[in-house]
Specification:
Distance between the termini: 63 Å
Structural class: alpha+beta
Helix content: 55-70%
Number of strands: 7
CATH architecture of the largest domain: 2-Layer Sandwich
Number of helices: 11
Radius of gyration: 37 Å
Oligomer: single chain
Length: 348
């Protein structure tokens, strides 16, 4: 409810605030009276002083009370306007000139509250979008599996060729569902701070040499050349080895998936304090307008093609978070139709 300050303004209000200055008035009056008595100017002058000093003091106290009342009134009005959402921007908060410091504090408080509300609204929107995306991504494999199983139960199981095909399809969607759930768990743990990193030095050349063969068969099936460029023997980098393996898995798998033909190259460039690691492909590339969004959760450049190829839409988001935990940042260069290059740095 708004405060009607005009109706509350009266002489009694001024007196109420003025009386708060009564102790100071009495001290000043008694001090002056004491000095007059010591000077002994006579009873007439003592009475005259008393009357003049009393009148001046009463007027001064009332004026001070009025000023205090107006100051408090301006604060109450500002708070009332904030409460009733009548303030559009922080600059609209105006107090009496003598209350500059209080005005600054109120302005800062209002700005912070406004920013917090905007942030919470954004979080709520992100939460809604995330739940919507999760729901959609879960429904896709579940509906597919249900459809294949229903077809089999309706008699297709007796046809060996059809049944094996449908079972393989159902198994494929089951794997996709498992990957999605694992990725959801990972990104939830990362963003909540529950995922603990285990940082230590490890041999990068040995790490990559052991990792590349895991993707060789997948690359050969598509006729893609998977190339690991030479890495200095004994090169040590600092990081969480298992989480960095997840980063390389995401980047190399994506490069192979979205490269119809050509090659995928992993390059390590050594500097004084760090190494620059690059995963480059000659694949589909990313349109310029999509580059800034590829690290968002569930964002896909080509949704239809992405679902056909497979993937959860969370891999690059997880990669981004893991590298940020390593005080690093992943970047991308891409030309649509010619390929992409993802690169990041690790400390030596």
């Amino acid at each position: 409810m708004a405060i009607d300050l005009k109706k509350s303004e009266s002489v009694s209000d001024y007196l109420k605030y003025s009386l708060r200055y009564l102790p100071e008035f009495l001290i000043a009056f008694l001090t002056g009276l004491f000095l007059i008595i010591i000077a002994s100017p006579g009873p007439f002058y003592i009475v005259l002083f008393t009357l003049l000093f009393t009148a001046a003091s009463v007027i001064s106290v009332i004026l001070l009370g009025r000023k205090r009342f107006n100051d408090i009134k301006s604060i109450r009005l500002a708070l009332s306007n904030i409460k009733n959402n009548e303030i559009i921007k922080s600059e609209d908060i105006k107090l009496a000139p003598a209350l500059g410091m209080i005005q600054d504090e109120l302005t800062g408080m209002y700005t912070k509250i406004t920013n917090d509300i905007v942030y919470l609204k954004k979080l709520e929107q992100v939460r809604k979008e995330f739940l919507g995306n999760v729901s959609h991504e879960l429904k896709t494999p579940i509906f597919a599996i249900t459809g294949y199983l229903e077809t089999l139960l309706n008699g297709a199981i007796n046809d060996q060729n059809v049944s094996m095909h449908f079972l393989n399809k159902a198994f494929h969607h089951t794997e996709n569902l498992s990957h999605l759930l694992n990725d959801l768990i990972d990104i939830s743990r990362i963003e909540s701070g529950e995922m603990r990193m285990s940082f230590r030095y490890f041999n990068l050349k040995q790490f990559l040499t052991d990792l590349i063969p895991e993707f060789q068969e997948q690359a050969e099936k598509k006729g893609i050349e998977l190339i690991l460029h030479p890495v200095r023997k004994g090169l040590q980098v600092f990081g969480d080895k298992s989480r960095l393996q997840q980063v390389f898995n995401n980047l190399i798998q994506n490069a192979i998936k979205y490269t119809p033909e050509g090659r995928v190259e992993i390059t390590v460039t050594e500097f004084d304090n760090n190494v620059l690691i690059s995963v480059k492909d000659t694949g589909l590339g990313i349109p310029e307008e999509d580059i800034s969004r590829v690290f968002e959760r569930f964002y896909r450049v080509d949704k239809a093609r992405s679902r056909e190829i497979g993937g959860t839409g969370l891999g690059l988001a997880i990669t981004k978070h893991i590298l940020e935990a390593h005080n690093s940042k992943i970047d991308v260069r891409s030309e649509y139709g010619k390929g992409s290059e993802f690169f990041f740095r690790l400390a030596k």
